[in-house]
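INSTRUCTION: Work out how this chain folds

Fields: amino acid sequence; protein backbone structure tokens

Chain under study, with its fold:
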Amino acid sequence: MLKKVPLQMLARSHKIKLAHNVALGQIEALCHSHICTDSCKSLISTFEPLDNVQIQSATFPPKPLGDNLIERIIKDWTQEFLPGSVEEAGCGVCGQLKHASELTPIKSVNGFLHVLSVPGITRLERRTASERIKEDDGPVLDKVCSKVCVECRRSLIQGKILRISLARGLWLGDIPPELQQLNFVERLLIQKIRTNCCFVKVSSGMRKMISHVIAFDSPVAKVYDTLPPPPEDLDEVLAIMFTGPCKPTEKDFQRTPMLIRRKYVYDALTWLKLNHPAYQELNISTANLNKYSEKTPPVSVEYKPSTSEGNRVPEGTSVHDNEPEIGTEDGEVPFVVHGITGERLQNETVESQKAKALAHLNSQGKFLAVGHSKDSSTIFKNPELYPSIFPWLFPYGLGGLGMNDIPRFSEKAHKKFLLNYHDKRFQTDITFPFVAFSHEQIKATTHNGFAMTELQSFPVIADRILGVDHTVLTNIINRLEQGEIVHPETEAEKTCFSIIQDLDHVGGGVKGSMTSKKYLRNELWSLISYLGAPSWYITFAPSDTTHPLCLYYAGSNEKFEPYLNIPDDERTRQVIRNPVSGAKFFDFMVRMFIKHILGVDSDHDGVFGKTSAYYGTVEQQGRLTLHLHLLLWIASAKSPQEIRDAILDPNSDFQKRIVEYLEKAHTGNFMTGNQEQVEEQLKFRSQSEGYTNPLYTLPSQPPQHLNSERCLASDLWWSNYKEEIDDIVSRTHIHTCKSTIGKDGKRKKNKDYYGCLDNKYGTCNARFPHQTVERTQVDQETGYLRMQKSEPWINTYNPMLTYLLRCNSDVTSLLSGTAIKAVVFYVSNYITKWSLNTHVIFDVIKSVLVRNSEMLGGNLSRQEKVRKLVTQMVNLLSVKMELGAPMICMYLLDNPDHYTSHKFKAFYWKNFVNEVQKHWDQSENESTPKQKVIILKKHNGVIALSQVYDYIYRPSHLEDMCLYDWIQLCERVKAPKKSQTKLTTEPVAEQYDANELFEAETTLSDSDLDDIESDTEAELQENEYLQCPKPLERADLPKNMFPFLAGHPLADSHVLKVASERQRLVPNFIGGVLPRADCGSREYYCCVMLTFFKPWRSGESLKDMDQSWDSTFENFEFFPRQKEVLKNFQVRYECLDARDDYNAQRKTMSGDTDNIHIPEYDDGLDCDILDVSADPLINGESGPLEKRRQEHMNEMKDMLTGMGWNETLHDRRLHIPAEFNPETDRSAHSWRFK
């Protein structure tokens, strides 16, 4: 007998019409009475889910990468880059760039365009002052576009205006020639509101020239009624420096956008006065205009001679980049914009401003990045702001942020809309992305700063910040700058280190902030705890200036031409001019890598086997381009220890299979010979006619096989495939060691960057040259595989990955090695590192405290002082995070800063452990940390709600579900309205967001309730406050929703939603690292693990009174998956221990180390999002901090014993009167408030 769903499928296959809610018996009757025709299908398959069916899992190691899979992946990859797959054009209705396949001619909806006739949206151009101001009477369209997208077309046919369209107040108008032809400096002269001042460094090498721009955010936006400003005003906001082997000539100046053409400026201001509302009352000063020379820059030019081999800027050269010069030889000089800084300049002289900017460019620190102005009042609710700052982008003063009537259309969404505008005006503007991103960060920090003051813990934070010892802080900075590793010991030092975590309350929602990196690190280690150690470490950096797709995104041509014969100068100029193209291109390449190389959502396995998980983070290189660091998990992969045991097993062929797999997955050799032979062949081929640099082309598709055997065309393709890989590797992978430190320990003259040899060990940071191995060897004692490698100056790579990406890439196996756990630790932390050294963070804290000394002594409230200090600290730290134009555009486009296969759920695990422990150690209740709860208003009362309640009062249906499974599968949601009881008369004032990583919840104890006053205090009665709502009925809920048990504060309005197994989330452990199994308190470890894996409703149910946590843990039968997770929890500690051993090995350089690139870095603090707790034991013994703590405890114990505190207490309950009658009769709640 078929069930309803299969029977419905059978009926539909026979064209039997069924009503929506037809019953099973009716379907059976209709099928029995049906007479088949020729159109009926004779056979149909139906499937029924079966329980306890064993599905064959992936084998390990996977099968070696074969030629058939290589050809298939390359074929699929090349299909993604066909013109029809990547071309995009503008929609005339919404103005957005859309995929060409989504567009149809706009004439197909001519009969529906009347819907777009909305008054007050457009404006016609005026050429004279006598013309009246008019708007276009027709439909609101961008008439440059001749097509309409699918969404807009569907909406028009329905007689509606799409929510996000030009007719909704987003119309901008075409940019007139008068504004299009302005250069960088000329635009400064026509700004009605100037918010930044710029330092321009023009670097000239022997052949090439490039400009670097730093835009300082002005403390107060300067508004002009007369334009252009006098030259002395421009001198305050613009500084130019020219560096090179010789002084700049007039020809050099003509190549830079630094010369002013007076006629162009006058024409632009005249046009704006006629057409831009903000310029109607403008006075155009010809006297000021005539003061500007047309042959020299408008401000004085500083010249700094340079005799170095190129025009590289500090920190701008990657490990594998050996090109001494960047930029262009002819034509306009490209701009590389390094950012907007939040340094305060109102008291700085022009010379001081120049010195600061030059110091940032030439110092050993990173480039300046986006920051914030002191006064942010003008950026809030100011629709005229952007049209006045960027009149060349908003020529008619329309379409600015806040000028539309679109509901739920945030400024963030509006900025993304502008960057996707079809004519790419916002993409190619030098400073628009920085200003837009700067304002977004200002608003985030301001909002978070006010939210921080509402935290229950704010008084403690305020005490720390206002009470910091400046002498101790300075001492810590000096010690860190000298390379010392500082562990806080005194209370004053601990206070300084605690402030860094206090900043997380404000920095949590700020994109690109130090706190956002902590989020990523915490997620990554949580994923390792969930799945175990990763199998592969992959990094690659798509080459934006050479790849045809990035050049297409950067240009204005709608047709994609993969094989462009564009000079190198023009390639560089196009990509640098449009940083959005780099962000879009990078995101596209990463998604193609995940889909085809890793085989995610594809019908084939990945290059490295069946992908189980991946986690990749986006980072910015010295020259501001984006690259990816990714950890990869392979399905059914064994742990390094299990692999070691299997390799050493003499009765297994595992050793042979793992070697075959690894040799096919990555290599450290060239494909057709050694380095010398490959370079000689490349030199010969590059001189032949028709040769093209493979970096400038797309991969070619393998020929179609007529049968299973290769043909001549296939053999030729494979030969070209290998030669092309060698060509790419020789251009992008070969490393050259550099040092800029002389024998005297000082930096060599004219060397303003660090080389890879400039470290305390004197060895290459990238660990070159690598040891060569003639053939793969197995260490019979350790099980370590030394893979065959003949090239000492290249890292291991995957040939097909190099062929497809056509850029530098590294592929490192994490499956075998003597130091593999150390590598896992380094890599996991490295890919989520932030770019600031610890001493820089403390220096920022100190500088903010010092420069605000006057404010601290002022009349502001204590709360406002701390809010301002913390906000400034977060702003300045964000400034120093080296965010360049491509990464800023990545954030503005809402592209991810990390790519992962899994979703995460915040798990405040200590709350649950504290709930368990309070039943067993009542004497320590006073010192138990307060539970994190959220305060809700309900039924005219106040309730404190914790995530712990959701588990304790879970439905009886989930009685046997342990906490670890519950956190992955269950979520409290609001019940459907029809299911809620009539008792619920008010909505919940605030809903708990389980995905918040910080204190979205407030700390609340019983005594805190005394300070909470309800709006209806007089009506609030004790029974209302303590009354437990009635749970909902199960029959009224959907299948995946269950009611809470009686006692849950929200039982009458919320339910527990249970996800399917496929929708499991990864628990993201918040609140500190989990306890170790081999060190520390064994009882505490066992208590925590039983809390996670043994179902409970109260702590009493986890163990018997006469049992210890250890014995209960040993007797509990864990499921196989739970045992696996318990092992995974310890991976972090095993990696940490291995790192210490590996560091000692590297210092002495004794023994044989793996040929694995381990980056060297100091990213500030290796800490979790919240406090990292205990002092770990060293070699099974207590560390120094733990020893001191034990000594203090013993001293206190002796003192208390001497005072008689451990003697038996008298029973003082006898002195309590049996009855007490107060003078006035009050409710319990009234007594509290009294």
Summary: Residues 432-452 form the longest helix (21 residues). Residues 15 and 40 are 7 Å apart (CA to CA).
